[in-house]
């Protein structure tokens, strides 16, 4: 059984590399059973969207009035 430390590590690594089938299935099972890791996964997704939106906005030219 995967513990929370390994689950959060894999969630972070999944942002950088594709997980193996075994890693993906173990992580999915853990997240289903662990509300803390489920929340962590949701928060990572939210942070990723916010960072992308910020980067996109920062790269847009400023409108001068």
Structural class, judged by helices and strands? Answer: mainly alpha
Terminal CA distance reads 59 Å
In percent, how helical is the residue content?
over 70%
The number of strands is: 0
The percentage of residues in β strands lies in under 5%
Radius of gyration of CA atoms, rounded to a whole number: 16 Å
Please tally the helical runs, counting DSSP H or I stretches of 4 or more residues.
3
**How many structural domains?**
1
How is the biggest beta sheet arranged? none
Oligomer: single chain
3D shape: elongated
Mean pLDDT: 91
- Provide the low-confidence segments as ranges: none
H/E series: HHH
Essential attributes:
65 residues, mainly alpha, 74% helix, 0% strand, elongated
Summarize the structure in words.
This protein is mainly alpha-helical. The chain has one domain. Helix content is 74%, strand content 0%. The protein contains three helices and no strands. The chain has helices spanning 4-13, 21-33, 35-59. Helix 1 (4-13) packs across helix 2 and helix 1 runs parallel beside helix 3 (35-59). It is elongated, with a radius of gyration of 16 Å.
């Amino acid at each position: 059984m995967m513990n929370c430390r390994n689950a959060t590590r894999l969630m972070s690594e999944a942002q950088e590399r594709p997980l193996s089938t075994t890693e993906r299935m173990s992580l999915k099972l853990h997240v289903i059973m662990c509300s803390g890791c489920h929340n962590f996964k949701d928060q990572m997704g939210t942070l990723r969207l916010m960072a992308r939106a910020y980067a996109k906005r920062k790269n847009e030219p400023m409108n001068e009035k």
